[in-house]
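Table S2 (continued). Query chain:
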Amino acid sequence: MSTRLHAAFRPIVRMVLAVAATLVATMPVFHSHAQSAADKIIVSGASGNLGGLTVDALLERGVPASRLILVSRTPDELGKYKDLGASVRFGDFTKPESLPAAYAGGTRMLLISVGGSGEVTAADLLKRAIDAAKGAGVKHIAYTSYVGITRGDTAGRAADHQATEENLKASGLAWTMLRNSIYMHGLIGQAARMAADGRGVIPPNESTIGYVTREDCARAAAAVLSTPGHENKAYDITGPELLGVRETAAVASAVTGKPIEVVQGGADVRPGFGRPAMSFTTTHFEELTGRKPTSLRELFAANKAALLAPPAAR
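Corresponding output:
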């Protein structure tokens, strides 16, 4: 009787086990998400322009404020984030003894580039931060570098960026290079002068630039800090178009309605800011964020009043 009973239940047991196996196989895996949710994200220079925009972008992406460690020489300026639950801490590259406590508990970090201080170079200051972060247990650092390095430009300030990239790679930590192009906001003043004068002058040997907004640089940084898969990669963060005086004048004229004549400057005109290594664009920003980078037309439209302001008011 017992043997017959067991035999009768065998098909049912097999069916239950098969269903259970199917459910287990199709269940989402939460391990990697839980690991990511446990990350504490450090933003260095959080009270600066790019730092603050990056914090806002992280919050917009749904990162809880409780996962943020915001480090600044002026932490009192970060009260609104502290009220949301972020950890706000003092840290100063010129006072390296302040950095271990500032970075304690962090696992990912945005290292925003800085200038030198006195006789200490920018690269040396940033190496202090890298060393302190490693000692504090940080596993991954994203560094805001310079777009021209991708095409071999290591002159001037680029040399500090190159040295910092090398120091970061040599640290043994996972790294991401955010090679940002030149900020587009600088073109607002240039365009306002063109609109007021009715004239734009192309400098000799002009190189166009893939200008990008500071906000888009912050959005790219937030994407790298809050999603997986960016270890040991370099991204060139540019805008959608190459811009020089001619392109800037055309957009300024379209937005303001003022005619702007564009002429070629001679030897008496100061050379342009751009270098050939800056003259390219990529789709890296869109790949990281899922959105198009801000165009010059969009930036000028949002700042039309500044373009039309009388020279004395600028």
